[in-house]
Design brief:
The protein is an alpha/beta fold and about 475 residues long. It contains ten helices and 18 strands.
Length: about 475
């Protein structure tokens, strides 16, 4: 076995805890470093106010309806290629995948519609995949032709060809923030993946060589990456969050991309930009990002769970979408624990958002339009979640919100609710009806008798505002 392959196996074992089957874990609270820059700290308060992000994975791979990027990695083939026609070899498949840019032509993409749908659904910021691990760029970068405006992409002459430019601008006009997902790994650029090294065509998620043994090649990749981050942060308006994926690209795994160097530079002009260098910890991971999971307790650091509305982060044909009830109940659970929810919707290859996803988003918007005050701008409040009741608060307004959810639509409606809240207060307003409600108080909490529900939207939760 070659030395490079040995190194690759060691690295793979070291970063196994970082990502497994394409899903990242998240940094523990002990590794969190609070920023010292007052502007960044203030921006973190903005972040904690937002609560809900629309995450979008999109690119040429949407034409396949399979997991994005991961099937390109031979080391990950055992789990990522199960949907692929095995009459082709891995090499044939990889060529077909990398050639998808030649047929990607989303002529039904209308950024204004996306932004309007997102606004009405209650989203507060966009988290858009500018580049996934496959290296395809959804903006007009000048550092590679593997891009939406590239000469081989039929969409290159469309009026919305620079997708990032148009999306970011239309979402900003709706008052939504902008977060750029950017993969630190790039499996399309020769300075990261190349057949000239001992691995040959057999690739894994990391570089195809040891950066310490090929410093000149690695420096090419570092500069390529820095240049692309500069583009996104100089040519595309205010960026609220730089959201960095591919946690194995880091000094502790032998792939020092020197991310702090470029982020420090960028913050000279993007002065209030947050950075989420996922799974790395330290000063450039301003909030942690649980993926496809929700922590079982409140975290004492800023955090955001990234979950999927459909089956996967990639577009899937005949996908199954979470209901508004499922999303709202999950959002309430996350917010009660002090986090944000970034829920992913993947557009169709033709540029439209799927109807199933739009239906769920409309239902979310209906609920949040009525009850958003118990979500947005709130902070954690003990006892957080107890006896089926979730708590949030707006401390400056002397308001505590108690929320009893119905995750199962078939659960019989309660006639009375026990709220395990023992502090003093003035009155309780039942937000479902916007009326004061009668209650009985004891040493252990409050029991409220519920009026008959008369709602124009499905009953997902009882929401009480406790005025202190």
């Amino acid at each position: 076995m070659s030395e490079d392959l040995k190194i690759g196996e060691i690295k793979e074992q070291e970063e196994k805890e970082v990502v497994e089957q394409g899903v990242h874990n998240y940094s523990q609270e002990e590794s969190y470093v609070w920023p010292t820059d007052e502007k960044v700290l203030k921006k973190l308060e903005w972040f904690k106010d937002q609560k809900l992000a629309l995450m979008i994975h999109w690119g040429p791979s949407s034409q396949l309806g399979i997991v994005t990027s991961w099937a390109l990695s031979d080391e990950d083939a055992n789990w990522s290629r199960h949907q692929i026609d095995w009459n082709v070899t891995g090499e044939e498949f990889k060529k077909q995948y990398f050639d998808l840019n030649k047929s990607f032509n989303p002529i039904r993409f209308e950024p204004e519609k996306w932004a309007k749908i997102a606004k009405e659904a209650g989203f507060k910021y966009l988290l858009f995949t500018t580049k996934h691990h496959d290296g395809f760029c959804m903006w007009d970068t000048k550092y590679t032709d593997y891009k939406i405006t590239g000469k081989d992409c039929p969409f290159k002459n469309h009026k919305y060809a620079d997708i990032c430019a148009h999306l970011f601008e239309t979402f900003r006009r709706q008052g939504l923030g902008i977060a750029t997902y950017f993969s630190k790994a790039d499996w399309n650029v020769d300075s990261y993946w190349s057949e000239k090294y001992p691995r040959g065509k057999y690739q894994w998620r990391g570089a195809s060589y040891d950066p310490l043994e090929e410093p000149e090649e690695w420096e090419k990749f570092v500069q390529f990456t820095h240049n692309q981050i500069r583009e996104l942060t100089t040519n595309y308006g205010q960026i609220d969050i730089m959201w960095l994926d591919a946690g194995w690209v880091d000094k502790k795994y032998g792939e020092d991309i020197r991310i702090g160097e470029i982020i420090d530079e960028v913050r000279k002009y993007q002065k209030v930009m947050l950075c989420a260098d996922r799974t790395i910890g330290g000063k450039y991971e301003n909030f942690v990002t649980p993926e496809q999971c929700v922590p079982d307790r409140p975290l004492n650091v800023p955090w955001e769970s990234c979950l999927t509305m459909g089956i996967d982060f990639a577009y899937m044909y005949e996908d199954i979408y979470k209901t508004p009830r499922e999303v709202i109940c999950t959002l309430i659970d996350i917010v009660a624990k002090g986090g944000n929810l970034a829920i992913n919707v993947s557009p169709q290859p033709d540029g439209r958002l799927p109807e199933g996803a739009i239906k769920t988003m409309k239902g979310m918007g209906d609920w949040l339009n009525k009850f958003g005050e118990c979500i947005y701008g709130t902070r954690v409040c003990a006892p957080y979640k107890k006896d089926g009741v979730a708590f949030t608060q707006k401390e400056k307004e002397n308001k505590v919100y108690a929320i009893y959810t119905y995750p199962d639509e078939n659960e019989p409606l309660k006639e009375e609710i026990f709220i395990p809240y023992t502090e003093s207060f003035k009155n309780i307003v039942y937000l479902n009806s916007d009326k004061d409600i009668t209650y009985a108080k004891s040493e252990k909490g409050i029991t409220v008798k519920l009026p008959k529900e008369e709602m124009d939207i499905p009953l997902i939760a009882h929401v009480f505002c406790i005025n202190k």
